[in-house]
Structure formats: structure tokens, C-alpha cells
Amino acid sequence: MKFVGEHILSVSQFTRSDIDRLFDVAEKMIPYARRDKVTRVLEGAILGNMFFEASTRTRVSFGCAWNLLGGEVRETTEIKASSLAKGESFYDTARVLSGYSDIIVMRHGQEGSVREFAGASRVPVINAGDGSNEHPSQALLDLYTIRQEMHGQGKKVDGLRIALVGDLRFGRAVHSLCELLSLYKGVEFTLISPRDLSLPEKYLALIKKRGHQIEESEDLHSGIANSDIIYMTRTQEERFASQNEANKYRGLLRLNQSIYTEFCEPNTVIMHPLPRDSRGEAQELDEDLNENPNLAIFRQTDNGVVVRMALFALILDVAEQIETSSRKVNWYTDRRFS
Predict the structure, then answer these.
(1) Given the DSSP bridges, would you call strands 188-192 and 161-165 parallel, antiparallel or unpaired?
(2) From edge to edge, which strands make up the β-sheet containing 229-232?
């Protein structure tokens, strides 16, 4: 991938060399994300942040990443706040808003919607989630986190043992992550879910085609043993036909400190794309794990900023210009990243 001027719509666009290049740039973004330095390399540039489906981390993370590069953000949230609610087409919306922006990040509840929008856009578009289909930037930041966590243990992504737990049918972050991990060698996938929420066949077929080992289970305790990474997910209740149907699965697979201590290896890393459902009837990732040093969920969110900064820098061809407009920060930043 050349990156410059490209849409980022699917992880299928990435090779391992593309990923390495992205992560190399992400590493250079760390001083800016940690508020050691400031850069104004995108001063005057405008991000169109278009989120037609609920989001906290992804929307704010993209906006933060853009601001840290010196750009300004214009946001649209919810369909009812846009002319799509009046019947305007994706084509018309894309043609108009791409005239106001230098790049657009879009989330929408309909599968394929972001690709359709990008087809009419005059500027690059990044898919921030299209229904239950894909979530490329989440998978990239998850992979970056896995690489960092494994490096800290003297391991690599090649040969990774990962347990993916929960709603694997509708979890778009899982779909994209599985496709990225399949680019590596000798990954062992343990897929733990209720039978009706199992990973879609096309991802199973891809993983098998690329020569990886798959084990499917409905039992959390045996499934998470012998794992380097546990990747928990919530029940994607917004994808179900009714709340009652979703409620059948909420709380079926729960990880807490007691289960972790009994069944996991001492250095097993715990990840979650967030939000985790902390309501009593769900609790797929218990808050009693908050002080566990292997809980990486907040390291994931921090990593999301540098990965998204790197995407912006590569797409807009400023990765080699970051330092030209950088300086030290002049405000208090201690403790935030300790």
C-alpha cells in the first residue's frame, strides 16, 4: 500500500510490510501523544469526524490524534443530526462534506456504508466501523498492543496463542483482528463463544487457509488456559433483532480475578476493545481485574492515539515532516502516562 491519499476501508488492504511501516511511524508519535512535544504539521487541515453510530473512544481518539498533529476537527454525530435523516444519499453527503475536509473518518451502522461513501468522496476516508463488518483502526491498535505486550515478555506475534471470547459473530473488531493476525505465522486461535455467536465462516476459512490452528469452545475455563492473550468482547446488543434476544447471551462468559488466577498463566495479557459492559447482568470483564498488571485495556486506548496519528501522517504524506514544526510542551503533564 502506498498510503498517500488512500482510503482505509478494510484490513485486507494491509500486508505485513504495511503494518511494520505503520507501526514504525506510530513509534515516532509517542513523544507527541505523551505530551513531551507538540507538532503543528497539520495546522490548517480539517478532519471531518462523521459518527452516525454511538462512539466514545474511537471518535475522541481520532479527534485527539488529529489535534495532536495540529489540525482542527469538525464533527457530525447521529444520523438525526445530519441530512441523511431527510433522505440525502451517501453520494450527495460525501460530495458535499469532502469539500469541507482534508480527510474523513466515518462510522455507520450499515455494513458496506463507509465503502459506498468513500466511492463518492473527494478526500481519503477511514472506516471507523460499518455495522458488524469491520473496524480496521481498532484491529491495528489491538495488533500494535499485542506486539508491545509480547515484546515485553520476549515473545513475538508469530506463534501467538490467543483466546477470543464472547460475541464473535457480530464483533467487528474481532473480525478485523483475526484477518490481521492471519498474516503472521503459527498463530493458535481459541474461539470461545455460544454456538449462535461463533466467528463467521469466512473468517474461519481465511484463518485455516493461511495455515493456523483453530480450536472452538463454549467453555471459558478450559479455553483461556495456555493463552498469551485473552481478548474479551461484550455482547453486541445493538446488532440483535431485539433486546430480549441479546439478553440471552449477556453474562454467559465472564472473566474475573478468581477465574484468571485459577486458569490463566501468570503473564497472560487481558485485552478488550471496549466499552466493557459493567452492568451487573453482564460484567464480561469484571472490575476486580482493574489492578491486575496484565490488564492492558487502557494501554490499548493510549496506543490507539499513536496508531491513528500514524495513519493520518502516512495518508496525508507528512510522516517525515513531523519534527520540522515540533517543540517541547510548556504545560503540566506529569502522572498522566505513569
Answers:
(1) parallel
(2) 213-217, 188-192, 161-165, 229-232, 269-271
Pairing of strands 161-165, 229-232: parallel
The model's pLDDT over 128-174, given as tens digits with 9 standing for 90+, comes to 999 888 999 999 999 999 999 999 999 999 999 999 999 999 999 99
Sequence-distant (6+) residues with CB within 8 A of 225 are 263, 264, 265
DSSP letter assigned to residue 8: B
- The rounded distance, in Å, linking the Cα atoms of 190 and 148 is 21
Alpha helices in 98-232 (DSSP H): 113-120, 136-152, 172-181, 201-209, 220-224
Of the candidate CATH numbers 3.10.20.310, 3.40.50.1370, 3.40.1190.10, 3.40.50.2300, the domain formed by 136-298 belongs to 3.40.50.1370
Q: Which cell is 255 given? A: 472473566
Question: Which residues in the chain are classed under CATH 3.40.50.1370?
Answer: 11-134+303-328, 136-298
pLDDT per 10-residue tile (average), the chain, 338 residues: 97 98 98 96 97 91 98 86 77 94 95 95 96 93 98 98 96 96 98 96 97 97 97 88 82 94 97 91 92 98 98 98 92 75
List % helix, strand, coil for the chain (3-state, nearest 5). Answer: 40, 15, 40
Task: State residue 81's pLDDT score.
Answer: 62
